[in-house]
Design brief:
It is a single chain. By secondary structure, the protein is mainly alpha-helical. The chain has helices at 2-13, 17-45, 51-68, 70-79, 88-91, 93-105; strands at 110-115, 118-123, 128-129, 132-133. Helix 1 packs antiparallel against helix 2, helix 1 (2-13) packs antiparallel against helix 6 and helix 2 (17-45) runs antiparallel to helix 3. The longest helix has 29 residues, at 17-45.
């Protein structure tokens, strides 16, 4: 997500077409790196009964995003927010990516670091829930490793 967000910023600030193309390539790599991240989080965070529903929502996001993306992109370009013109379609990802990164790095006292399809959890606070110490939302105690 950090790669995608940073490359979106670079694309939005590009002063030359070569920089724009390079930033778009890096954005593609960043978005490709997020795919296994999301799937591994779904696998780790949802129990066997909830996982098919989560995967259905995940799978539905791709075609819906592909169909719905051009409409807000065109609206952002036409709105010419802050004089950004076409740059707004890239710059809009920066605050959204920042919020998403913040959400990923601070969840219920637990820091989540996802890198190349691997999820590593480091406790920053001791938690006790009704399902036992360190239980994660959406996970049964039998699915914890």
């Amino acid at each position: 997500m950090l790669v995608f967000t940073g490359a979106s910023l670079a694309a939005g600030l590009a002063g030359h077409v070569g920089v724009l193309i390079a930033a778009r390539v890096v954005r593609g790599v960043g978005s490709g790196l997020m795919v296994p991240q999301v799937r591994s989080v779904i696998h780790a965070e949802f129990d066997e009964r909830e996982r098919p529903k989560a995967m259905t929502w995940y799978a539905a996001a791709f075609p819906l995003g592909g169909l719905a993306g051009p409409l807000p992109g065109g609206a952002l370009t036409e709105a010419d927010l802050f004089g950004a013109g076409w740059r707004a379609i890239f710059l809009v990802n920066v605050p959204i990516g920042g919020l998403a990164l913040e959400a990923l790095t601070s969840r219920d006292g637990v820091r989540l670091l996802a890198w190349s399809g691997w999820s590593t959890r480091a406790r920053t606070a001791t938690r006790t829930t009704s399902r036992g110490p360190g239980a994660w939302p959406g996970r049964s105690s039998s699915s914890r490793r």
